[in-house]
């Protein structure tokens, strides 16, 4: 039966982080890095105690708003979200593993937030401290509901982790107040925020409180966006054209805010990439909880446009620095790309919500692609340096070299940012990684990501323990030990067959199982049986090095190839191959050899290939010449996983390489 024939589709419940324990060589490095380095480091930055990092002012703003200090607001109008996302990351860590010392620090911050909250429930330190008479007068630019959304997410996460209601009660008061302000009823403001976030946050608040008021409010913000007359244009007129950022402006770029059309009528990804991803996440949530098929259909259309026409091979989205935005179909330049880390995190949020509604491997494939490439690549191995922008081709000479179209591209990660949305976003995603491995729907446990560890899941009216053992992502062998709580439990275990894998083998308790149409369902290998304690499912995924080509309409990649092995996209880096990487050519017949190496980048799989290189030293001094090009010289090219680049100093990098026919 089609899931939308019922009043509401069945939707997977959240997997609690205290029911999943990751024990995985690859991911434990980053999870421990977040716990031991990133979160403490960010707390010091948020308190302005870190030399060399851009000032934050985020904690001090709350102290000023609470009356605990005197001073002026510092930072961006949305500076509060840095604290909120830090608290959310801390919450996920506490849910997985209680830490009394860290919990005490969080409790003290929550006390300050409570003191800063106004009597009517309002909570935004910029408008409390700096412009108390300007509330809700510039939703287009000033992020008030975006700030509210992130604080709501923190409140929900902290309650789930600790059972403490203080921050949850704070955000409920704030949401109740927001509900009195916004709506289509007489006397209310028929508006919505310029930066989507409140929509998905209100769904989370509904899920823990079961208060329908919050779900209705989240749906209102989606339904109202893009309706005519356009709210942002009316708002600008009321402000007499005054702009928060530029002084004055004549019109609002509605497409930038995804408010040019009602959300159900939008068919192409457009505008600010992070905003669209957050909006789609909220749309998928509301569609599932309300049974709104038209909203879900809009999610499908936009998903298809993104992943088939506007997504980088690394899972990056948003190709232009102008507006940090999508541009047009197949416009995917490698050197001027934006591909904000937060946008890929938003893409993971969206993909995960789609998986919870309809478990199809295409969503998990994209989730994995963004996770293993752009997101983990957004943070250095030291946990103290971050990428905001994730290019696929870099020449350090171009960055800051006078050509301003490259000004946003950095050849090395930075310690912090004045607009520091990406570092805490990476922290909150990696600290909640346990949520993304499995979902349960009907009588089926779906395995979306192959990450070693143990999980305890409820299926078929009982509890099942899973123990996943693997050296993934370097090796394609996965073993899952299944132990039902009762002696025999009847359910289905579904294992994702990744889109990069052309051959796989499955064994159950040592017996081979054919992978035919009877067991394949929506990209998952399904194993249905009465399970006994310590049944073993073994999956072997062939993991060859493959050459990937772009659609012919991606102009910058014509005649070029990228290498991929397993979930990893690979790149050339100057540290291994010297400068002027554009001179390299990969013959079509070149053998590609994967080799495990240990070193500065950790234990990784590199790829070696016999390549050709133009020697520019044999070129004459003329800028142009009718002479033939110098002969190509043989060399051994070394490719490393894209996520690992820029950990060995400044240098060139490229993902796409010219291919010789």
Automatic annotation (TrEMBL):
Residues 19-434 form the Non-reducing end beta-L-arabinofuranosidase-like GH127 catalytic domain. Signal peptide: none annotated. One of its GO terms (molecular function) is hydrolase activity. Keywords: Hydrolase. Residues 546-658 form the Non-reducing end beta-L-arabinofuranosidase-like GH127 C-terminal domain. Residues 444-543 form the Non-reducing end beta-L-arabinofuranosidase-like GH127 middle domain. PANTHER family: DUF1680 DOMAIN PROTEIN (AFU_ORTHOLOGUE AFUA_1G08910) (PTHR43465:SF2). This is Glycoside hydrolase family 127 protein.
């Amino acid at each position: 039966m089609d899931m939308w024939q019922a009043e509401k589709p069945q939707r997977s419940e959240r997997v609690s982080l205290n029911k999943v324990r990751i024990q995985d060589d690859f991911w434990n490095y980053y999870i421990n890095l977040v716990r031991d380095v990133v979160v403490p480091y960010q707390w010091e930055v948020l308190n302005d105690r870190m030399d060399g990092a851009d000032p934050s002012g985020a904690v001090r703003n709350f102290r000023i708003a609470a009356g605990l200090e005197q001073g002026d607001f510092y930072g961006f109008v949305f500076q509060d979200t840095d604290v909120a996302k830090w608290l959310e990351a801390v919450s996920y860590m506490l849910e997985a593993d209680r830490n009394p010392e860290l919990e005490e620090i969080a409790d003290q911050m929550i006390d300050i937030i409570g003191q800063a909250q106004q009597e009517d429930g309002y909570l935004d330190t910029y408008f409390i401290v700096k412009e108390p008479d300007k509330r809700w007068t510039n939703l287009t630019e000033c992020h008030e509901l975006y700030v509210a959304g992130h604080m709501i997410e923190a409140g929900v996460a902290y309650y789930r982790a600790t059972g403490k209601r203080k921050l949850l009660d704070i955000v409920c008061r704030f949401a109740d107040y927001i509900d009195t302000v916004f709506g289509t009823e007489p006397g209310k403001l028929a508006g919505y925020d310029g930066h989507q976030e409140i929509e998905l946050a209100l769904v989370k608040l509904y899920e823990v409180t079961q208060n329908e008021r919050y779900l209705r409010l989240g749906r209102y913000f989606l339904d109202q966006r893009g309706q005519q007359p356009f709210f942002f244009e009316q708002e600008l007129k009321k402000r007499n054209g005054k702009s928060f950022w530029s002084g004055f402006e004549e019109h609002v770029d509605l497409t930038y805010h995804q408010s040019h059309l009602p959300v159900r009528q939008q068919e192409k990804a457009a505008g600010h990439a992070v905003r669209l991803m957050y909006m789609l996440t909220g749309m998928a949530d509301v569609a599932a909880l309300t049974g709104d098929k038209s909203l879900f259909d809009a999610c499908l259309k936009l998903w298809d446009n993104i992943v088939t026409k506007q997504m980088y091979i690394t899972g990056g989205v948003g190709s232009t620095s102008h507006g940090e935005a999508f541009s047009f179909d197949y416009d995917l330049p490698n050197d001027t790309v934006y591909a904000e880390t937060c946008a890929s995190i938003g893409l993971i949020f969206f993909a995960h919500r789609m998986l919870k509604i309809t478990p199809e491997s295409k969503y998990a494939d994209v989730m994995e692609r963004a996770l293993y490439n752009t997101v983990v690549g957004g943070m250095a191995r030291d946990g103290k340096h971050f990428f905001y922008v994730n290019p696929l081709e870099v020449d350090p000479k171009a960055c800051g070299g006078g050509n301003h179209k490259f000004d946003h591209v950095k050849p090395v990660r930075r310690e912090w940012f004045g607009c520091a949305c990406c570092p805490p976003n990476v922290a909150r995603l990696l600290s909640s990684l346990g949520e993304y491995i499995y979902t349960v729907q009907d009588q089926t446990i779906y395995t979306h990501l192959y990450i070693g560890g143990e999980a305890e899941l409820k299926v078929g009216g009982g509890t099942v323990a899973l123990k996943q053992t693997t050296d993934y992502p370097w090796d394609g062998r996965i073993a899952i030990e299944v132990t039902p709580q009762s002696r025999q439990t009847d359910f289905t275990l579904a294992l994702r067959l990744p889109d990069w894998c052309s051959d796989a083998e499955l064994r159950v308790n040592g017996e081979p199982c054919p992978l035919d149409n009877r067991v394949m369902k929506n990209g998952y290998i399904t194993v249905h049986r009465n399970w006994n304690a310590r049944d073993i499912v073994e999956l072997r995924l062939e993991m060859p090095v493959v050459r990937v080509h772009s659609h012919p309409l991606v102009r910058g990649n014509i005649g070029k190839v990228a290498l991929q092995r397993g979930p990893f996209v690979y790149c050339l880096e100057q540290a291994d191959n010297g400068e002027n990487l554009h001179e390299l050519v990969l013959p079509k017949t070149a053998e590609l050899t994967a080799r495990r190496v240990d070193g500065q980048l950790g234990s990784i799989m590199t790829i070696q290939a016999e390549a050709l290189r133009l020697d520019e030293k044999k070129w004459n001094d003329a800028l142009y010449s009718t002479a033939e090009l110098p002969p190509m010289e043989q060399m051994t090219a070394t490719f490393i996983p894209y996520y690992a680049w820029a950990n060995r100093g400044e240098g060139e990098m490229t993902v796409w390489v010219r291919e010789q026919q």
